[in-house]
Automatic annotation (TrEMBL):
One of its GO terms (cellular component) is cytoplasm. Monomer. SUPFAM superfamilies: Peptidyl-tRNA hydrolase-like. This is Peptidyl-tRNA hydrolase. It is an enzyme of class 3 (hydrolase). Its EC number is 3.1.1.29. TRNA binds at Y14, F62, N64.
Length: 172
């Protein structure tokens, strides 16, 4: 069983924020698969079943409580650590950088920290999508809750490249 989770914040207020990169990547993957949304109140998520062995997940908790929804999905579907991939924004990577890694700390990302705390482990796959740091004086928390200021074509290209990384992982 493989579960790819895109981290983000639910609701229209946050729909285009940098912090919702995980949701953007899930949406991009869905352009290549036929999978309608299934809302699960029990799992606090929207689920997209690509087939019996591959699921895309958008937690409907807010970012800083993502671990609760991820933990519920992992336990419900009996996902092994290597079968979980979490996609999220990362200010420590320059805009446009993407890194696929296994077993790393949160590096201060509150959503990832929530997942690590809920699972009791950092032993899972991550796709870190670089959103960069601001060149103006602004708190990181405010920066990630703003919409992208970069060219929309460059943002779309970043999302497409990150989705390719996830799709390749799902095919392994």
């Amino acid at each position: 069983m493989k579960v790819a989770v895109g981290l983000g914040n639910p609701g229209q207020t946050y729909a285009k924020n940098r912090h919702n990169v995980g949701f953007f990547v899930i949406d991009e993957i869905l352009k290549q698969y036929v999978a309608g949304p299934q809302v699960s109140k029990k799992l606090q998520s929207i689920l997209y079943f690509l087939d019996k062995k591959r699921i895309l997940v958008k937690p409907q908790t807010f970012m800083n409580a993502s671990g609760k929804a991820v933990n519920r999905a992992v336990n419900y579907y009996k996902v092994k650590p290597e079968g979980l991939l979490v996609v999220h924004d990362d200010v420590d990577l320059e805009f446009g950088e993407i890194k696929h890694q296994f077993g790393r700390g949160s590096a201060g990302h509150k959503g990832v920290e929530s997942v690590i705390d809920a699972l009791g482990s950092d032993q899972f796959n991550r796709v870190r999508v670089g959103i960069g740091r601001p060149n103006i004086p602004i708190e990181t928390e405010d920066w990630v809750l703003q919409n992208f200021s970069e060219d929309s074509h460059k943002v779309q290209e970043l999302i497409e490249r990150a989705s390719e990384v996830v799709i390749n992982w799902l095919k392994e």
